[in-house]
Specification:
Elements lengths: L2 E8 L4 E2 L4 E6 L4 E6 L5 E2 L10 E7 L1 H7 L9 E7 L5 E9 L2 E4 L4
Parallel strand pairs: 1-8
Antiparallel strand pairs: 1-2, 1-5, 3-4, 3-6, 6-7, 8-9
Length: about 110
């Protein structure tokens, strides 16, 4: 399996963060793909099946999500910059989100 996926969890409530808008951008900031997290907080395939080696950004519109859920949040946007080093691999970038913090890691 190749490509890129993401998963956003509302860590404060222990539930999926449904409806978070996410965009994939290249190093110059040009948008390559966009999507919205599903009922499980996931986007199973962001963009093309395989991304060439390079530096990318996943940008999460957390401000809109916080507003839609009537949550006062500190981070209106999360921009995770990462490197694709092997286009033949699958990359998963999860986010644990709460109003005043977030964390991420290279998933599998």
């Amino acid at each position: 399996m190749t490509g890129l996926s993401t998963h956003v969890l509302d860590a404060a409530n222990g539930t999926p963060a449904t409806g978070v808008a996410v965009s994939l951008r290249d190093e110059s900031g040009a948008e390559l793909a966009a999507g919205v997290t599903d009922a499980d907080g996931r986007i199973g395939q962001v963009g093309a099946d395989a991304l060439p080696a390079g530096i990318y950004h996943l940008v999460f519109d957390t401000g809109e999500w916080f507003a839609a859920n009537k949550i006062e949040g500190f981070y209106p946007q999360i921009d995770i910059c990462f490197t694709i080093d092997d286009p033949a691999r699958h990359f998963h970038v999860p986010v644990l989100l709460s109003p005043y913090s977030y964390s991420t890691y290279r998933g599998s």
